[in-house]
Amino acid sequence: MSTNADCFIVLPTNCANGCLILGRNADDATAVGVATEICYYDVSDVLEGKTDGGAALEPVGDAQRVILQKPKPGLWGGDFGANEKGVAISLSWSGGGEEQATDTDCLLGTDIVRIALAACQQVEDAVDRVGELVAKHSGDNAKLNFIVCDPTAAWLLSCAGKVWAAEKLQASWLRLPSGGLTVTDNVDKSSEGLDKSASFAAAHDAEAQAPAADWCGPRPAGDGNYTQQDMFETLRLASGLGSRAANVSVLSGGKGSGGSISCHWFTGTPNAADSVFKPFVFAPKPRISPLTQVQADAEQTLLHSLHGNRKPAALEHLRSLERSCVDELNNYFSIQDHASDELDELLKDCVEAEVKFYR
Predict the structure, then answer these.
(1) Secondary structure of the chain in the HEC alphabet?
(2) Fewer Cβ atoms within 10 A, N terminus or C terminus of the chain?
(3) What pLDDT does residue 290 have?
(4) What's the CATH number where 13 sits?
(5) What CA–CA distance (Å, rounded) separates 251 from 56?
(6) Are 123 and 226 in contact (CB under 8 A)?
(7) Which phi and psi (to 5°) does residue 13 adopt?
(8) Global pTM exceeds 0.90
(9) Which of 280, 272, 276 is nearest to 86 (CA)?
(10) The domain containing residue 251 runs over which residues?
């Protein structure tokens, strides 16, 4: 399955409390009916199992807990995720020969997302790790775009086969539509020996450069007032018939940040305009609902199936609950510097409350 996503990045200078906000609409009209899974991994199991590309997993000295979104059931890796240190990674586009890379000594882009999140505590370490994994295990014909963030910075990383280039985002906000390689002339990290005098995207696929696109929805104004609610609105206005699950990561804890608890919001259902966002934080012992995972002998998550039978009135009530949840969490984050065990079942409770409106 190819990966396409319309992504929005807002750096801390624009955001309330000095956080960094990453929003993502998965986009694939051919896969709207395919369930998206949300899975949590503790340090003991985050690197267990077999990668989808076939490459063997290497041990990590200090593994991190990870929340991961999977674009289809049964994948080992994911197209979006975050770890307990506030690192978030999005696979925003995949093209080329990824499908042919399975069952070899390769890693798919989704594998790379999970491995890098498990291994890294800071954004530049994650960029380097993604680059190392690409150089060693990417398929020869694969073309991939990643967005790598933590509370302090956002990086764009493009790869063509085993060659890669990364750019540290300087613009205070950016929309990255899917459809081609993102990194062009500004290269801050790269494969060894890369010719930085030429556009990376043009040199490796002149017909697959990411298209330009204007912002959608509430525009960051540079006044430090942009919030996750603004990003929810942006993703809803940018969504369409081909939109799948949406995510928003609010990354806190950087220099100048007004808080230290990052929060990750998932719809787990198609089309943000018809969905609600549910929050997850790395509390001491998080538990997420089995309704966000495909169970034995099923083809869909129960959340996805029931959402498909929703009534219009349910969405109005759920949007009200979503706003209340945002307000309550923002208040909690303003007075707490860590997530306590009372938030262990935050995502679980929100998912199960949503499902009650669909039954």
Answers:
(1) CCCEEEEEEECHHHEHHHCEEEEEEEECHHHCCCCCEEEEECCCCCCCCCCCCECCCCCCCCCCCEEEEECCCCCCCCCEEEECCCCEEEEEEEEECHHHHCCCCECCHHHHHHHHHHHCCCHHHHHHHHHHHHHHHCCCCEEEEEEEEECCEEEEEEEECCEEEEEECCCCEEEECCCCECCCCCCCEECCCCCCCCCHHHHHCCCCECCCCCCCCCCCCCCCCECHHHHHHHHHHHCCCCEEEEEEEEECCCCCCCCCCCEEEECCCCCHHHCCCEEECCCCCCCCCHHHCCCCCCCCCHHHHHHCCCCHHHHHHHHHHHHHHHHHHHHHHHHCCCCCHHHCCHHHHHHHHHHHHHC
(2) C
(3) 95
(4) 3.60.60.10
(5) 31
(6) no
(7) -60, -25
(8) yes
(9) 280
(10) 5-358
Nearest to 18 by CA among 257, 262, 335: 257
Q: Check residue 40 and give its pLDDT.
A: 98
CA dihedral 17, 224, 120, 205 (to 10 degrees): 160
In the block, residue with structure tokens 């990561």: 249
Q: What is the pLDDT of residue 203?
A: 84
Residue among 137, 118, 116, 136 at smallest CA distance from 128: 116
Say how many domains are in the chain: 1
Q: How high is the pLDDT of residue 253?
A: 85
User: Looking up tokens 């998206």, which residue turns up?
Assistant: 36
Query: What is the CA angle 250-254-260, rounded to 5?
Result: 65
Residue ranges in the chain modelled with pLDDT below 70: 1-2, 96-103, 206-210, 254-259
